[in-house]
Amino acid sequence: MHRRIMAPGALAAASLMLAIPASAATPSPGAPGIGDPYYPAYGNGGYDVSHYDLRLKYQPATDELEGTATLLARTTQDLSRFNLDFLLDVSEVRVNGAKASFVTSGEHELEITPKAPLAKGTAITVVVRYRGVPSSKEAYGGFTSWHRTPDGGAAANEPEAAWWWFPSNDHPLDKATFDVSVQVPDGTQAISNGTLQSTSSRLGWTRYNWRSDKPQATYLATLAVGRFDVTTGTSESGIPVINAYSKDLGDKAGAAKASIERTGEIADWLSEYFGPYPYNALGGYVPNTDTGYALETQTRPYYSPRNFANGSNTNIVVHELAHQWYGDLVSVKGWKDIWINEGFARYAQWLWSEHEGEGTAQEIADYVYASRAADDAFWQVRPGDPGPENQFHLAVYDRGALTLQALRNEIGDDAFFAILKGWPQKYAHGNASVADFQRYAEEVSRKPLAALFGTWLFQPSKPGAAAARAASVAKVAGVPVQPKSWKKIAATNDVHEHEHKRDHEHEHER
Ligand SMILES: [Zn+2]
Question: What string of DSSP letters covers 227-266?
């Protein structure tokens, strides 16, 4: 796969340098990664994408996907060459209308050399024609984010899902708007994010045109093709809802619908804590996959049938919808900041438990602290910087939410809930880090919080009795009674991100 050849454009770049004023930097290749220490090859340097237009055709019988991706971007340096992250087979690339040369390199890199170097600040239109069978493309020796189903397939995973269906700058730091247009055989549906603008049928094929008009991270873009029961409605607050359920959910169909049909109600409930729902579309979808996890794909979370194996599961819906604010609206700066996604989505489940009368957040915090002994490996994971191998470790969730209860007790309910609501607005449609959150919490509460965050997010051992007393997260002596909601919350985790591919993948990457 490592076909690193001297691109023909390199010569063109050399000759054109003469035409560039001496003061200008020499055009150079964009970095093959955006600079995330957890995943050095993810994303790319040298440009910023503002919009993806994906015009695709998919044949469920053979899993063949073909089409054209048109990316609108702007260069952020004098650029001789740049990369996209992609796995399918590319037949042609054009940059601003002119054919560009390209090679594949590394595990998922598409290196593009435009005819002439691009000056910093240039608006570029990149057109990539491609085709392929997504299920035939594996990364890291066996791991895939394309979930083939008997009636189609679905792309959903974290932190990478785009490589299997569109070329991108695959990192949350480069968000963009999306138009996703997919042609599928009549009787089959194509589900994606945002609003269904229109559908049209011709010669046995139906085209679905989806639009996400607010910035979206690439891993939050999703595509599912299959035979779905689609329901539509409107939340009480006026947001249109589109849900889709595979026709093959069997005895899980009732439980899935009983949970996901409450999406509008749950989003409205969450907005009381997090502020107005940030998008103009809502929903959820359940393809006939068998993954262990669900995912907060923007406006329309992906759920696995396994989430509904034991009956209805509003807990998972609360978790994925909480991410619409914590994760999607405000995204991580780097993957080490995963706590600002998972700690808060978990805490939303604790608030839901309180709402349902199944145990207060305080009771759950007391239980988490007391039920795990000091020698439990759980406490060695630092939620504030867990390492890529532990990005989706249970501690990021449970110890992460425990941190929020400790913060709440330290600064009081008024400041705490002001922060929960203010944060999504402060960084709306952008990115933020754990350090940004600490700074913001200190600003709002007017309290120094370095010691609290240091203890609960960064200490590689169980916070001691004095710290627990100070944070009031061990209010009861011994191990308290297990909160009623505990098993349900724990179950969403079993199937949530636990089997997240990181486990297999990372060994390979190191
Ligand atoms: Zn999550």
Answer: -EEEEEEE-TTS-EEEEEEETT-GGGHHHHHHHHTTHHHH
Write the pLDDT tens digit of every residue in 297-339: 999 999 999 999 999 999 999 999 999 999 999 999 999 999 9
**% residues pLDDT > 70 (the chain):** 92
8 A C-beta contact, residue 161 and residue 219: yes
* Per-residue exposure over 112-147, b if at least 16 CB sit within 10 Å of its own CB, e if not: bbbbbbbeeebebebbbebebbbbebebbeeebbbb
Ligand 1 geometric centre to CA of 326 (Å):
9
Alpha carbons 178 and 180: distance in angstroms, whole number: 6
Q: Which of 272, 294, 298, 271 is nearest to 283 (CA)?
A: 298
How far, in Å, from the CA of 355 to the mean position of ligand 1? Answer: 20
Q: What are φ and ψ of residue 96, in 5° steps?
A: 50, 45
| Amino acid code (one letter) for 328 | D
In angstroms, what is the span from residue 256 Cα to ligand 1's centroid? 18
Residue 38 CA to ligand 1 center (angstroms) comes to 18
pLDDT digits (tens, 9 = 90+) for 447-500: 999 999 999 999 999 999 999 999 999 888 888 899 999 998 988 865 444 344
The structure tokens 């604790």 sit at 350
Amino acid code (one letter) for 245 = Y
420 C-alpha to ligand 1 centroid (Å)? 17
Under a CB-based contact definition with an 8 Å cutoff, are residues 237 and 271 in contact?
Answer: yes
User: What is the distance, to the nearest Å, from the Cα of residue 197 to the centroid of all Cα atoms in its chain?
Assistant: 23
Distance 349 CA to ligand 1 centre (A): 11
Read off the pLDDT band of 139 (50, 70, 90).
confident
User: What is the CA(345)–ligand 1 centre distance, in A?
Assistant: 6
The burial class, CB within 10 Å (0-12 / 13-18 / 19+), for 340 is buried
135: amino acid identity, one letter: S
* Residues 440, 423: Cα–Cα separation, whole Å: 8
Q: Report the separation in Å between the CA atom of 142 and the middle of ligand 1, taken as the mean of its atom positions.
A: 23
Give distance in angstroms: CA of 140 to centre of ligand 1: 23
Distance 411 CA to ligand 1 centre (A): 25
* Centroid of ligand 1 to alpha carbon of 320 (angstroms): 6
Cis ω on the peptide bond leading into residue 159 (within 30° of 0)? yes
Three-state DSSP at 455 gives: helix
Here the tokens at position 411 are 């600064």
How remote is the CA of residue 353 from the centroid of ligand 1, in Å?
A: 17
439's CB contacts (< 8 A; 6+ apart) are none
